[in-house]
Write a structure and sequence with these properties.
The chain has 571 residues and is of the alpha/beta class. The protein has helices at residues 44-49, 51-57, 92-104, 123-130, 189-205, 239-242, 248-260, 277-284, 298-301, 318-329, 348-351, 359-371, 401-412, 417-427, 464-467, 474-487, 489-493, 535-540; strands at residues 25-28, 61-64, 68-69, 81-85, 108-113, 142-143, 163-165, 172-174, 209-212, 267-271, 293-295, 337-339, 376-380, 495-499, 506-513, 516-523, 545-549, 566-570. The strands form four sheets. The protein has an eight-stranded parallel beta sheet with strand order 11-10-9-5-2-1-13-12, with helices on one face. Strands 14-15-16-18-17 form a five-stranded antiparallel beta sheet. Bound molecules: 6-O-alpha-D-glucopyranosyl-D-fructose. 6-O-alpha-D-glucopyranosyl-D-fructose is lined by residues 74, 77, 114, 157, 177, 213-214, 271, 273, 308, 343-344, 402, 429. Residues 74, 77, 114, 157, 177, 213-214, 271, 273, 308, 343-344, 402, 429 line the site of 6-O-alpha-D-glucopyranosyl-D-fructose.
Length: 571
Amino acid sequence: MSLSEHSVADAPAQSDAAWWKSAVVYQIYPRSFQDSDGDGIGDLRGIVRRLDHLARLGVDVIWLSPVYRSPHADNGYDISDYQEIDPLFGTLSDMDELLRAVHERGMKLIMDLVVNHTSDQHPWFLESRSSRENPKRDWYHWRQPRDGGEPNNWESFFSGPAWTRDPVTGEYYLHLFAPQQPDLNWDNPQVRHAVYRMMRWWLDRGVDGFRMDVINLISKQPGLPDGRVAPGRRYGDGFPHFSEGPRLHEYLQEMRREVFDGRGALLTVGETPGVTTDQAALFSDPERRELDMIFQFDHVGLDHVDGKFRSRRLSPGELADSFTRWQDALAEAGWNSLYLSNHDQPRPVSRFGDDTRWWRQSATALATVLHLQRGTPYVYQGEELGMTNVPFADIGDYRDVETLNHYRTAIEDGADPADTILGIRAMSRDHARTPVQWDATAHAGFTTGDPWIATNPNYIHLNASAQYGDEMSVFEHYRALIDLRHRLPVVAHGTFARLDAGDPAIFGFERVLNADVLFVVANLSSHDVTPLLDAEFVDAWVGGEIILSNGLSEPRVDAPLGPWEVKVYAR
Ligand code: ISL
């Protein structure tokens, strides 16, 4: 291969600060990763036991979903003590042990930072609710009733109003998520500095950065104005008023100064639902000193029709078009996080691929077009095995607060139960939360007890131990992709350019870094397609080497592609 390996000298002057451009992050949802004590819930010691899986896969960073003390109204995204580990997951010394074991393997670990809201059991909120005069009253958003009801017309992300009346004082408090997740008032400097102190405490303990939950919601429009009510709707659209508020970027720059300045190789990634490409550049342009990168939501909203629970299959090309828009928009300033799934999303092979006939091919094709874009890829636990959506048939199988609230309010509003379940079966967050499928023993090797949520029955054949060492497996394909990013600077640093291949089902793109060029061509559909490429382009690739593929791989770049076939050429 003429492509230079380790030609770091060719890469754009890469300061240490941008080490994450050639890194791959793996997300662990601790509840469902590995149980060590038989209570049916994953825990920190379980993670330590499985670190060799991650080392084998080759990932650089672990993002740990919340393990802090929590009443678990939203599986840990409702935190009652930021400086304690929930007993379900272990102890602070288990956490220290995990950090040690991660670092020993040359990996890093970032924590989930959930500071748009706390739990309603957090001491800050308990104080705040206790009286109108309490010094912490202003740490949350309290308002008088309006006409005897909610202070404004915003809807919670988890159904129902975004306000709950507290009997202690008769006032309402704001919660953009569940009532057990009251929103902090970031305009109060004491709140911000308490958060920064807590963050420094974790960094001092050895964590390597943070994934910041709904960080674009921390600054709200003063006055909390009503949202516009669409015809036929009960609630107003508060989104324009509670996202991208006027002081958001000021707060992130302050956080950067107060928490991160002067520290070593860290990673910060913001979760920013609804973010536009222009806003994304503001967050992640290094000159602005805010965040390293953000999660955008464009491609995971494409299939929402009327809210997420009325969804549709994408047509060929929609996914590639969305990825291309983001590649182009952040080409000059800013940096993309690349992901197909996380703990809030259905399984990508079921959602975007074909999890029956073309399961292996579609899981590997989707992974390839994701990992070889410009940006930092994130792998969500089980995705590297091609785990699929779970065929739950009954509402009693589901555990997620969003799913259960949606079902309850839909039925109260007169919806047909069977129809409601269909919507949930396509999109519930629980698809991502069934236990990781390690092997073919009981409960997929996840627990010796009863798992908190049922295991997908396909674990018998779809599991990690069946895939290790099998060159054709989804796992080994992910491993190869991660290895490419580490070996070839063009993967991390090259430019991106999409090529028109005559059919929307084909996603073809080139990556270029000096003399090194990659060409990725994928058929993202379940039928055969032949790429139509310029004769000149085809000629230029004669003799190019196929460095990765998932099929029989005809050498010509314009050879017909089978369903979900992908090829990666280098020259
Ligand atoms: O999954 C969603 C509902 O369809 C998203 O809107 C999600 O709620 C949003 O992306 C924010 O997610 C984050 O914050 C939530 C938590 O429930 C999610 O798990 C977390 O990823 C509240 O903390």
